[in-house]
Amino acid sequence: MASAASVTSLADEVNCPICQGTLREPVTIDCGHNFCRGCLTRYCEIPGPDPEEALTCPLCKEPFRPGSFRPNWQLASVVENIERLKLVSTPGSDEEDVCQEHGEKIYFFCEDDETQLCVVCREAWGHRAHTVRFLEDAAGPYREQIQKCLECLRKEREEIQRIQSRENERIQVLLGQVATKRQKVIFEFAHLSQFLEEQQSVLLAQLEKLDADILKQQDDFDVLVSEEISRFSSLISELEEKNRRPARGLLTDIRSTLIRCETRKCRKPEAVSPELGQRIRDFPQQAIPLQRKMKMFLEKLCFELDYEPADICLDPQTSHPKLLLSEDQRRAQFSYKWQNSPDNPQRFDRATCVLAHGGFTEGRHTWLVKVDLAHGGSCTVGVVSEDVARKGELRLRPEEGVWALRLAWGFVSALGSFPTRLALGEQPRQVRVSLDYEVGWVTFVNAVSQEPIYTFTASFTQKVFPFFGLWGRGSSFSVSS
């Protein structure tokens, strides 16, 4: 025996679009739609604004002739069988699909007024000049918009999750560095007098504060990321749920829903604040105020708290022909005389630069550059990405994969997006360059006075190489650990 739901579904298929009741004496017109004979007759008698205008089908608006009704006996038999089934089944109802004003089934959507219409509503004067479409036809473009919004929202959510993963990795690196510094401080200060024990307490307290601040910012970061993911997940769930609705449910407040989704703004969180990062970078300098007699101890402590020494050799395959390299490949001198160097893809052809062998893809490394400049000469030191331009003009800035300082006669400049002349206590002639690949720091310090010079912050994604440039007759530099 047929269920109530299936009988209701069949009954909906044989309803008259005009009266919404079961078809009585069904007739078919030219376009193929079926109506009750009585309903269609009354429809034809309704006067229009233009008496000469041809009658149109209440559903598809195709013209038809009033005398062209054709009895549909086969459909009448189907209606009779469904009526018998309804006597033994519980008929369903779908009040949401019925016009509240006329009590008739809703078939249309007015795009001008964003209103869902029944047959009678469509014939009203207020909608005759409007763009009116069947519900499914009208829902199609909106479904496409929803799909586009879903794709964008999912991408935004994935981006937030990638940021969360990357920043959590950075946090672990920082926590590891802080833990290492703590152990080194404990070991070194254990062999000193009461004066150094007091300094030990100070430094440990600062490390504990850094540790706590990192964890606190991690908690704040996790909360912010969770809120962002929850916000986007909520929007996605809302759109997915709306997209599963039938056309009328989908179209209800559709523009308002889409506007809220399209005008969303994704906050790009950062796990570690610049201020905290600067405090971590500046930590080794806290040892500088110690007494002069402890200078050797302090130098050792600062060195162990920072980076591992790198064995740097210059790569002659990358060297510009105007640079003369020493046999041990640890010193370079500028010359206006071009060397007989074969051209190759790795060699700089315009910028008088050279790279070191090997390069780095991880870890913390440091090397020393001793600079000897003639009057008017200059030297560039830093790191570059593997794909830095070797041919033609080389723009020395982070956007081009270059993080470097320029040391010239009488001044030092940080080669950022816009070169910045630095105010230093003295002109450095020995510069210690330190690279922290995972955290993304390139730090420059005056190796003699221990005065900080500059720090670049970057996100390395490929191998980086120690980088050196030289200009001016008689100018030279040498590298060591």
TrEMBL record:
GO MF annotation, one: zinc ion binding
Location of the RING-type domain: 16-61
UniProt keyword annotation of Zinc-finger present: yes
Domain B box-type: 94-135
Locations listed in the record: Cytoplasm
Domain spans labelled B30.2/SPRY: 292-481
PROSITE patterns the UniProt entry points to: B302_SPRY, ZF_BBOX, ZF_RING_1, ZF_RING_2
Record flagged with keyword Protein biosynthesis: no
Stretches assigned to coiled coil: 143-170
UniProt xrefs under SMART domains: BBOX, PRY, RING, SPRY
Major subcellular site: cytoplasm
Recorded family membership: Belongs to the TRIM/RBCC family.
Quaternary context: Interacts with IFNAR1; this interaction prevents association of IFNAR1 with TYK2.
Official protein name in the record: Tripartite motif-containing protein 10
Source organism of the structure: Callorhinus ursinus
Gene for this chain: TRIM10
